[in-house]
Amino acid sequence: xxxxxxxxxxxxxxxxxxxxxxxxxxxxxxxxxxxxxxxxxxxxxxxxxxxxxxxxxxxxxxxxxxxxxxxxxxxxxxxxxxxxxxxx
Length: 88
Description:
It contains one helix and no strands.
């Protein structure tokens, strides 16, 4: 594998997601040979990241009756304002 590094930095080689799309880099295109260096690059130890645990949050309205009451009040309020505007 030949790679061109422009600035010194920490670079990572990531693998393991077969369903992801392949990235497109400028190293796939034709680059002037003067920019290529032939110094070998070594790989560091493999680092495995642990998956984050997601704690479920409680819903705002645990009982569906409260949701229906709030929706009914909103519909009644909108209907009252609509009838008030139509009378004027």
